Amino acid sequence: MKDKSRYSRNIGILKESDQDLLSKKSVCVIGCGGLGGGVIENLVRIGVGKLTVVDCDTFDVTNLNRQVLSNETNIGKSKALEAADQMKLINSNVEITPIQVELTEENCRQIIAGHDLVIDAVDNIKTRFILEAACEKEKVTLIHGAIGGWSGQVGVSRPGDKLFQKIYPAHENDASVDTSAGNPSFTAAVVSAIQAAEAIKVLLGKEDALYNKLLMIDLSEHSYEVIEL
What we know:
The protein has seven helices and eight strands; from the N terminus they run αβαβαβαβαββααββ. The protein is of the alpha/beta class. Strand 2 (50-54), helix 3 and strand 3 (95-99) form a beta-alpha-beta unit. The longest helix has 19 residues, at 185-203. The radius of gyration is 17 Å and the shape is globular.
């Protein structure tokens, strides 16, 4: 660690050796919006060494209700570039690479190659299937998260787990998720925080990550259920 005092409040849930290990890890976050922004900030603050942040989109006013990287001054600006610029102000020790492209079958493997972990922070099922297939070929674990209204879900997909075939069996070719339930800030905050926690478990080799499981969250009733897949 370059600055032990920076991470002193991590020690307790982490050992100093864990903190050192995180500084050597690289994570690719696909999507810099409601989920991605929260995940990115959590991983930067805890001290993951390298992040690649991927998003082809720009901020608009509809993002202001929930996307932590958005503000009234950066409407129209690149989400990926803004993520990199803002996170450098939080932790200059973290190497952040922004990529402004739409994820496709043609470029996905190249983008995620060489990373220790990939985070699914996208907003449609079609892209999730592309991402999981590429992660399987590159032999890298994927942390899934999704939100809708008061509800959210988180799971961990190792190469070969076929998580999305299990949870989206009838929707493999759907272009997008129905957002009519709304996407409030608190649901995105909870799910992105859990994704970040699962990411740390996976990066440190913990066995209690959500492997072959799906955590279902309903904040309207504070219901949290882990489903075995």
